[in-house]
Amino acid sequence: MNLKLRTISRAEHLSFIRSRSAASHMQVPSWGELKSEWRSESIGWIDDSGKVVGAALVLYRQLPKLKRYLAYLPEGPVIDWFDPELERRWLRPMLGHLKAQGAFSVKMGPPVVIRRWEASTIKEAIAGGAAERLREVEADWQEPRSFELADGLRRAGWLQSEDGGAGFGDVQPRYVFQVPLAGRSLDDVHRGLNQLWRRNIKKADKSNVQVVQGGYEDLALFHRLYVVTAARDHFTPRPLAYFQRMWTALTAEDPNRMRLYLAYHDGEPLAATTMLTVGEHVWYSYGASADHKREVKPSNAIQWRMIRDAHALGASVYDLRGISDTLVPGEHLFGLIQFKVGTGGQAAEYLGEWDFPLNKLLHKALDLYLTRR
C-alpha cells in the first residue's frame, strides 16, 4: 500500500485523533493555536482509499531574518512506528514535504515507550543504593522492537538528541511516570498508593481540604500560586495569558480537553493544577502550591481527585509527566521521582527526540546558538 502525504484540514486531523484510543496532547490541532510564536500545520498520510491513516501537528519556528524554519513535531508524528517500511512510506515523504515548506531542520519525538519500571522496582533500587540512574536498573518490561527502530532511524540519517544525563536534554521529557488505570477499580488504585500517600490523603480529608473544579475565571488564582511555586523552585513562570490562551483553544476543541482544579482549606486556595485529556490518556500538566499550610497536604488531595476523575472518564492511564532518572537522594530533581513513585505506578522511558538536518550548515548554527544560550 502506497501512502500520500499532504496538508490536512483541522476537521480531518481531529477526526483521525478521535479514531485512536490516545495521542499526545501536543498532537491535537488546538495545540498549534496555543503556540502563537510558531506557525502550525496539520499533515496527514493518506492511503489508496483516501483515508487518513497517520497525522501530525507540525510547529514551524522561523530563523531571524530568513524564511527558513525549524520544523518541530512534539511527541509525534502519530503513525505506525513499527512498519517495516517506516523510512520509505512515512518519514521520507514527511521530510520532503517539510523541506518544501522551508524547513532547514526537523525535530520529532516518536511516541514510543521502550522500557517500564514498576514502582516497587524503583523503590528497591533506591533503598539498595546499587544504581544511581534509572537506566542502570533492569526494566520490568521492554519493547523488543525499539532497538531495531532506533537503528533504522540512525541509518536513515536521524540524530538522537542528547539526554543531558538526567532525562531532560530533550525538549519534552524522555522519562515520565504513569499510573495504569485500565482494568483497575478505584480501590485497586488506592491500594497501589504507598503508605505515605494514603496517610496524606487521609490527613487532607480530616483537615477538610476541599478540591473543586474551576473555570476560566479561576486561572488568575491558579497563576498566583504558580508564581509562588516558580519562585520556590527557581524556574521562570509562564504569563497568565499563556494559560488563558491554552484554556480557550483546548476547551473550544473539546470541553474535557483541559480542566482546572483548586484545593481550598478554610476558604483559602493552597494548591491548583491543570489536567489534559486526549482519548484514554490523561495528563497532570501544571501544578502550583502555596508556601504555607503544607501540613494539610493539599497537593496529595488534588492529585487523588484528578486520578479519580481520570478513572471516571474511562482513562487507561494517568500521566504525571516528567521525572529525572536520578536515584540518588539529595540530588537535584530526586524529589520528582520520589513523590511520583508513591502513586504506585510505573516509570516509562520514551525513545527520545530525534533531529534531521535538511541543511547541515543552518542546523549546526542553530545547535551552537542553543548550546551557548
TrEMBL record:
GO terms for biological process: cell wall organization; peptidoglycan biosynthetic process; regulation of cell shape. GO terms for molecular function: aminoacyltransferase activity. Coiled coil: none annotated. It comes from the Bacteria. Keywords: Acyltransferase, Cell shape, Cell wall biogenesis/degradation, Peptidoglycan synthesis, Transferase. PANTHER family: LIPID II:GLYCINE GLYCYLTRANSFERASE. Belongs to the FemABX family. This is Lipid II:glycine glycyltransferase (Peptidoglycan interpeptide bridge formation enzyme). The lineage of its organism: Bacteria, Bacillati, Actinomycetota, Actinomycetes, Kitasatosporales.
